[in-house]
Task: inverse folding
């Protein structure tokens, strides 16, 4: 059982790290005792992380190790859950709240707000691309590296009417619309 905030919930060890947990349980004992040691550890709720002298580590030990080794605390795991499920939509983002055992809706609301902003920006980018397609037909601006982008820009001599999407150039400008 794992404990988070106000509730206990069942947990398990991923098979890819089970060998490390087994090594902690076995110490120098014969592997034939592994099943007995696992059962005893579960019944007596042995801590997984302990100091070399046998004392328990601080509750924030894992986060401290993440911070030391990876430059970020263990909260990054919760962030990854939100980021992944955020990409699947609003309901999945609310599901991330449950997976992260968050009682408050603050984090989910933040991601749902970001989702709305990302959708609006994507729509604006599509509109921008359509405008540039009218300005420069046949030039694909979407799949070029920054160094390959055309150097032309509308500048002060060209205006785009957002309602009619017509381009108006100053008659004295060398960048006149065709």
Result:
């Amino acid at each position: 059982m794992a404990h988070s905030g106000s509730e206990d919930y069942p947990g398990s060890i991923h098979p890819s790290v089970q060998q490390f947990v087994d090594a902690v349980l076995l110490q120098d004992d014969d592997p034939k005792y592994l099943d007995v040691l696992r059962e005893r550890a579960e019944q007596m709720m042995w801590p997984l992380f302990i100091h070399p002298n046998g004392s328990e580590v601080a509750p924030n030990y894992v986060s401290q190790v993440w911070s030391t080794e990876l430059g970020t605390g263990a909260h990054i795991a919760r962030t990854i859950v939100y980021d992944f499920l955020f990409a699947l939509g609003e309901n999945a983002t609310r599901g991330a709240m449950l997976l992260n055992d968050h009682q408050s809706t603050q984090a989910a609301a933040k991601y749902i707000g970001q989702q709305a902003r990302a959708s609006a920006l994507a729509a604006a980018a599509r509109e921008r691309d359509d405008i540039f397609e009218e300005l420069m037909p046949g030039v694909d601006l979407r799949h070029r590296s920054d160094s390959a982008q055309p150097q032309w820009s509308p500048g002060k001599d060209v205006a785009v009417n957002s309602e009619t999407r017509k381009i108006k150039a100053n008659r004295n400008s060398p960048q006149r619309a065709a």
About this structure: Residues 1-57 form one domain. Residues 94 and 108 are 6 Å apart (CA to CA). Helices lie at 15-26, 34-44, 61-70, 75-86, 90-99, 106-135.
